[in-house]
Write a structure and sequence with these properties.
- The protein has helices at 6-43, 49-84, 99-104, 112-116.
- The chain has 123 residues and is an all-alpha fold.
- It has a single domain, classed as DksA, coiled-coil domain (Four Helix Bundle (Hemerythrin (Met), subunit A), Up-down Bundle), CATH 1.20.120.910.
- Helix 1 (6-43) runs antiparallel to helix 2.
- The structure holds zinc ion (ZN).
- The site of zinc ion has 8 residues, from helix 4.
- A zinc finger (dksA C4-type) spans 90-114.
- This is Zinc finger DksA/TraR C4-type domain-containing protein.
- It comes from Pollutimonas nitritireducens.
- Residues 85-116 form the Zinc finger DksA/TraR C4-type domain.
Amino acid sequence: MKHLSSSAVQSLHRQLVEMRARLLEEIRIAHADIESVHESLEGESRGGSDASELSRLEALRRSEIAIDESKLNAIDEAERRMNEGNYGVCMACGKAIAPDRLLALPTAVRCTDCEQAPMSQRG
Ligand SMILES: [Zn+2]
């Protein structure tokens, strides 16, 4: 990560820390929502249409939690790469990832070229 100044890495690290705090808060809220869904379901002895609406809400919250957790994993990965000193290096081609891209997406692990590389050649 020689292409990144230590102050740039520091500010990216701060971004990662803030992102993690935000995600943990989102997950906490989603879990609290699920809790209240369960309480509502238990409150209704015979669940009608409300029950299916509530379980739909729970499924939605659970998928949000799954997305947030995968983002948390990406943040952990980025911090690990910072510690190991290979942060900002493309996993696919080994070239430096543009600082602008990292500022926009601190968890980026591939350079723009590799990210945009088409799966198959266009005719
Ligand atoms: Zn690349």
